[in-house]
């Protein structure tokens, strides 16, 4: 009698399911390992996953509030502006930075045949996305509760923008992380690149505030569209936003394909 | 069965490509064993890494028809802030095994006492090696990859390792690499010699032993990279 798995799935799916089971096992193992190696068991432990981005965001919020960064009379509350802006930077920057050091730090684990480079990256991306998302949710809820921040105008748009930023961050992380297997230059250059991209990423301005020429340049950067959508969802029609999600999706799709290709090649070339 | 088919390995160096070995083939049946002899730099550890799957061959392929272990007693994958127990859990999760029934064996074999639950960064070299070896024994494999140089310790530790490996698991396959011909002669039923990037096969372990010892006298080890 054929087993139930065979009747449901065609036979060529079975090896796939077997591999999927192994990969999920490996991802779980790496996730637990990464949490302890990064955050340890002392004081807050794993809660630092959320605590760290929260401290960053709070610090930046304080600085920007003190500097009065929002455009005069634009009607945007500064705390909400800073929280939405800096949280979105965390989404594309931290996962990529973590992955750019991922191969070097986890190379010995590859001695276990079922542990692959992509697993190391997926775990690091997942942890960064979980951390940044929780920090964003906690801070928003807290500031809304004490009245420093309005409630979002359109939650679905906020989630859409957040999802797009997560996608962009993940695909960039795969590409940069995989690239480090071929040249240390990739790791070396990523940090200045991240530093220079930050002021252009749309976190500290609205596209509407820029001169028209500059708007066109800035809108080449995919993450700007995500931040604009996020803020459109948050503030509603208070401010005019500029975003083209189709453009951002095409960029992300392209980055994802390149990233997956580079990661596959990286696992073929890795040497000890 | 494990089958190594026409395997070559090249490394890029600053002086051009360096060929570790070229067109190497051999087979290992389930339950059998083989010793690979080679002096320092002959490519023994590279061979172990390729067979374990940590690294890919430049050309050729390796077919694993049985469950092949990671290089025995490999301690490089220990994260300093993880405890011995954390490392056991990690390995068990990767291989899909419940770690709980294994704890008594690991504790008994490693003799770590309370240090089993302390971060690995407080371990001595000997403690690390004992833990690494014990973890290799925790997961059941059909074929063990043994780099003799990795299993360093005192006489008692050696004795216990050999007991675990060659007595308790005598039905398994293993590949033992060493620069010490007497070790190979003692434990292996078949031996090959890795010399100048080629694999030399022999009818008997004694023939391999004689060839290897002669090669040691004849020529001092030379490491050279050549352009192609």
What's the shape of chain A? globular
Q: Please give the share of residues in helix of chain B.
A: 25-40%
Strand content of chain A: under 5%
**Strand sequence of the main sheet of chain B, in spatial order?**
5-6-7-3-8-9
Quick one: biggest sheet of chain B? Answer: 6 strands, mixed
Mean pLDDT over all positions of chain B: 88
Average the pLDDT over all residues of chain A and give the rounded result: 89
The major sheet of chain A is characterized as:
none
Helix/strand order of chain B? EEEHEEHHHEHEHEEH
Oligomer: heterodimer
Rg of chain A: 21 Å
Give the tally of β-strands of chain B.
Answer: 9
- CA gyration radius of chain B, whole angstroms: 18 Å
Poorly predicted sequence stretches spanning 5 or more consecutive residues of chain B: none
* N- and C-termini, Cα separation of chain B: 35 Å
Question: Any overview of this molecule?
Answer:
The complex is a heterodimer of chains A (272) and B (228). Helices cover 71% and strands 0% of the residues of chain A. With 272 residues, chain A is mostly helical. In chain A, α4 (78-100) runs parallel beside α7. Chain A is globular and about 55 Å long. The termini of chain A are far apart. The relative contact order of chain A is 0.13. Chain B is an alpha/beta fold. Chain B is 34% helix and 26% strand. In chain B, the strands form two sheets. In chain B, strands 5-6-7-3-8-9 form a six-stranded mixed sheet, with helices on both faces. Chain B has a three-stranded antiparallel sheet with strand order 2-1-4. The longest helix of chain B has 14 residues, at 125-138. The two termini of chain B are 35 Å apart. The mean pLDDT of chain B is 88.
């Amino acid at each position: 009698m054929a087993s139930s798995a065979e009747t449901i799935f065609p036979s060529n799916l079975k090896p796939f399911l077997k591999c999927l089971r192994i990969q999920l096992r490996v991802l779980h193992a790496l996730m637990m390992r990464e949490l302890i190696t990064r955050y340890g068991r002392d004081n807050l432990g794993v809660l630092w996953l959320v605590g760290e981005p929260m401290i960053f965001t709070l610090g930046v919020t304080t600085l920007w509030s003190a500097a009065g960064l929002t455009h005069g009379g634009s009607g945007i509350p500064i705390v909400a502006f800073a929280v939405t802006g800096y949280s979105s930077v965390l989404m594309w920057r931290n996962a990529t930075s973590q992955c750019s050091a991922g191969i070097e730090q986890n190379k010995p684990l590859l001695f276990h045949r079922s542990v692959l480079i992509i697993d190391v990256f997926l775990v690091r991306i997942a942890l960064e996305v979980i951390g940044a998302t929780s920090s964003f949710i906690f801070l928003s809820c807290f500031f809304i509760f004490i009245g420093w921040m309005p409630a979002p105008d359109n939650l679905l748009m906020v989630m859409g923008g957040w999802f797009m930023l997560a996608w962009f961050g993940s695909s960039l992380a795969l590409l940069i992380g995989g690239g480090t297997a071929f040249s240390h230059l990739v790791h070396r250059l990523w940090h200045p690149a991240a530093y220079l991209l930050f002021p252009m990423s749309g976190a500290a301005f609205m596209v509407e505030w820029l001169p028209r020429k500059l708007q066109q340049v800035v809108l080449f950067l995919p993450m700007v569209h995500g931040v604009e959508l996020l803020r459109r969802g948050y503030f509603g029609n208070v401010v005019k936003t500029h975003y083209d999600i189709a453009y951002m999706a095409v960029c992300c799709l392209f980055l994802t394909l390149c990233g997956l290709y580079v990661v596959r090649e990286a696992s073929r070339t890795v040497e000890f | 069965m494990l089958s190594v088919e026409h395997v070559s390995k090249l490394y890029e160096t600053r002086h051009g490509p360096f060929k570790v070995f070229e067109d190497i083939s051999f087979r290992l049946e389930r339950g059998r064993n083989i010793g690979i002899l080679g002096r320092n730099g002959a490519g023994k550890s590279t061979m172990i890494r390729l067979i374990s799957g940590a690294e890919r061959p430049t050309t050729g392929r390796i077919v694993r028809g049985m469950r092949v272990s990671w290089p025995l007693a490999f301690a490089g994958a220990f994260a300093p802030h993880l405890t011995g127990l954390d490392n056991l859990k990690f390995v068990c999760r990767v291989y899909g095994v419940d770690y709980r029934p294994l704890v008594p064996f690991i504790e008994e074999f490693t003799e770590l006492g309370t240090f089993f639950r302390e971060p690995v960064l407080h371990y001595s070299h000997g403690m690390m090696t004992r833990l690494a070896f014990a973890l290799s024994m925790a997961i059941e494999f059909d074929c063990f990859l043994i780099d003799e140089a990795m299993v360093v310790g005192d006489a008692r530790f050696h004795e216990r390792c050999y007991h675990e490996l060659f007595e308790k698991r005598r039905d398994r396959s293993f590949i033992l690499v060493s620069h010490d011909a007497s070790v190979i002669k003692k434990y292996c039923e078949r031996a090959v010699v890795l010399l100048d990037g080629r694999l030399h096969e022999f009818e008997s372990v004694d023939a391999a032993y004689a060839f290897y010892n002669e090669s040691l006298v004849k020529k001092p080890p030379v490491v050279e990279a050549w352009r192609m």
